């Protein structure tokens, strides 16, 4: 929440027009900052004086006296943990979104009978012989042996490819790991390259890299931490480009419903090729390709953590439009999204754990002006 919204709530509190919910937010926020200088860079001395906190202190003290010997606990409920971040400007473990206007938040979302749950570790391994293994339903331990390469599911749910001998030519037959909507997975290839798949994604690769290069194919969104090998380049093929690296960290987003294919470099270097164009990326750069014949466009990324937030268990939006926000929600919760009326043209910035249930998600989105109805397996976005 921005400074104007904080001042708005403080004014309502001091004028005794705040709702019980708003009073609780202000009081617990004040208790959280513990009476320190409150946003001195944002408030002038006159404003601070005019927004006197003496009545807040008095009210908290009265409540504390009444409740003794109990101690007042911050973050006493999940709802407050979700909402107080709007007041404190915290970007910690809970969601916040900065609205482009300073209108007061209004909760008007509606939740009806639903079976929507957040995604989790869920993937299918398709072996070279055509057999399939549902990884989230498979016991830990060795899954298969492919001509000198052992495939193991670890206790933590990872998939490992490990040499147990000298792989022969049959070990180059292709395997595929794919995630459904509402799924994600982490695997480690035989060369010790680590791969994370987002929802509705796939990576196709040989059990062992025995040739002069290490080549894989991807769809959806995939993050790579490629093991270094100067003599054997690692190549990622998408339907729009080839990405060549020697050892680096990068994220590829190739979803069909996104406007661009986005390749973002976090560490090392990348050579990208599409058609007759070839570019070299340095850390912090993102290459965007808008169509099969579009030129590669390079842009600088200020917050690389936002790019791989999905890998670390978060949604994180950076000046995203509403449809972009809801596309991510739709994939992870394996639900459909529809819109009533005019779609707002605002941009949203924020962060939310991907582990929250859909009712909490909708409640938190409502603080931004995104009002939804949820029924069965569909989320409907409504105008104000």
Give the helices and strands, then pairings.
Elements: H1 3-14, H2 20-33, H3 45-50, H4 54-67, H5 78-88, E1 96-97, E2 110-114, E3 120-121, E4 124-126, E5 132-134, E6 141-145, E7 149-153, E8 159-163, E9 174-178, E10 183-188, E11 194-197, E12 202-206, E13 214-219, E14 221-225, E15 234-237, E16 242-245, E17 249-253, E18 261-267, E19 270-274, E20 277-281, E21 285-289, E22 297-300, H6 304-307, E23 314-320, H7 322-333, E24 336-339, E25 348-353, H8 358-366, E26 371-376, E27 378-382
Fold and architecture overview:
There is one protein chain. By secondary structure, this protein is of the alpha+beta class. The protein has three domains: 3-90, no CATH class; 120-306, Jelly Rolls (Sandwich), CATH 2.60.120.1440; 307-382, 3-Layer(bab) Sandwich (Phage tail protein beta-alpha-beta fold), CATH 3.55.50. It is 21% helix and 33% strand. It is built from eight helices and 27 strands. It has helices at 3-14, 20-33, 45-50, 54-67, 78-88, 304-307, 322-333, 358-366; strands at 96-97, 110-114, 120-121, 124-126, 132-134, 141-145, 149-153, 159-163, 174-178, 183-188, 194-197, 202-206, 214-219, 221-225, 234-237, 242-245, 249-253, 261-267, 270-274, 277-281, 285-289, 297-300, 314-320, 336-339, 348-353, 371-376, 378-382. Strands 3, 6, 7, 8, 10, 11, 14, 17, 18, 21 and 22 form an eleven-stranded mixed β-sheet that branches. Helix 2 (20-33) crosses helix 4 (54-67). The longest helix is centred in the first third of the chain and has 14 residues, at 20-33. The radius of gyration is 25 Å and the shape is globular. The two termini are 19 Å apart. The model is unreliable at 33-108 (pLDDT under 50).
